[in-house]
Amino acid sequence: MGASVSHFRPSGVWPMTTQVLLAGSTGLVGHLVDAGLTGRSDIALTRLVRPGSSGAGQPIDFENLYSAPEATLRPVMPNGVDVAISCLGTTIRAAGSQAAMYRVDHDYVLALAQGARALGACQFILVSSVGAGGPGFYLRTKGATERDIIALGFTRVDLIRPGMLLGDRARARPLERFGQRLAAGLAPLMVGKLSQYGVISAETVAGAIVRLTGQEGDGCRTYFNPQITRIVHP
């Protein structure tokens, strides 16, 4: 799945209109990112959606993206990519198996990053999870995705690691609302390092992503609940 890099602009020089590629625009965080970026006059936003999706966007077969990242994205982004954002994610229960979840949370996300990098993207923003790289299949998958994206050589990578997300999903996950209420009740006790494991609204996470989109600077940055909140509410 490797691809050569074709730069559309000098590194660190942002064009008048930033070409942004967003995957996962129909999800809890993604649809809010979509709304926030749509209102920015300096951004040309392209959303990737599955064929038959009810969401607005460019339909693509993610299996094709996995097999040929650059070839799949080039017709979609003829002017290249400046920033790619992944809000893709699922659960073992929703996907049906660990392998199916890994396909979405790792393989599809990595393919998006590879294709965007080949088309000149300098910045990649990834919605990951607090505890990424820790024990358990879910966290190991998140950690592997972060690691493999960093290895692609983007000028800037922004890793968003929220705690439990507060918000209404189109399809509510079992017990999630109960967990949200419980976590919200425990929020006053989540201080210091524990604060990164507390609840945070999807609106706040999306707002941080919108503000980070197109920011200059290099290196890999990781944001937990406190840092995410400060971006939106300095």
Descriptive report:
The chain is of the alpha/beta class. Helix content is 38%, strand content 17%. The strands form two sheets. Strands 3-2-1-4-5-6-9 form a seven-stranded parallel β-sheet, sandwiched between helices. It has a two-stranded parallel sheet with strand order 7-8. Helix 6 links the parallel strand 5 and strand 6.
Q: Could you give a quick summary of the protein structure above?
A:
This protein is an alpha/beta fold and 234 residues long.
Question: What characteristics describe this protein?
Answer:
single chain, 234 residues, alpha/beta, 7-stranded parallel beta sheet, two-stranded parallel sheet, 9 helices, 17% strand, globular
Helix content: 25-40%
Tally of helical segments: 9
For the largest beta-sheet, the strand count, sense and barrel status come to: 7 strands, parallel
Helix-strand makeup class:
alpha/beta
Distance between the termini: 40 Å
Strand content: 15-25%
- Helix-strand pattern, N to C? EHEEHHEHHEHEEHEHEH
What's the rounded overall pLDDT mean?
87
Topology:
Layout: E1 18-23, H1 30-38, E2 43-49, E3 58-59, H2 62-67, H3 69-73, E4 83-86, H4 92-95, H5 98-118, E5 123-127, H6 137-150, E6 156-160, E7 164-166, H7 176-186, E8 199-201, H8 202-212, E9 219-223, H9 225-232
Parallel strand pairs: 1-2, 1-4, 2-3, 4-5, 5-6, 6-9, 7-8
Helix pairs in contact: 1-8, 5-6, 8-9
